Amino acid sequence: MKIQSIEFLTSVAHISQLPKRGYPEIAFAGRSNVGKSSLINCLLNRKKIAKTSSTPGKTRLINFYQINEAVYFVDLPGYGFAKVPKKERHKWKALIESYFTTSRFLRCVVIIIDSRHELSPLDRNMVEWVTLLEIPKIVVATKADKLSSSQLQRNLVQKLKQIEVFDVSEIIPFSAITRNGKRELWQAIDKTLREDSK
Ligand code: GTP
Ligand code: MG
Question: Which of 15, 17, 114, 176 is the most exposed, having the fewest neighbouring CB atoms within 10 Å of its CB?
Answer without folding.
Answer: 17
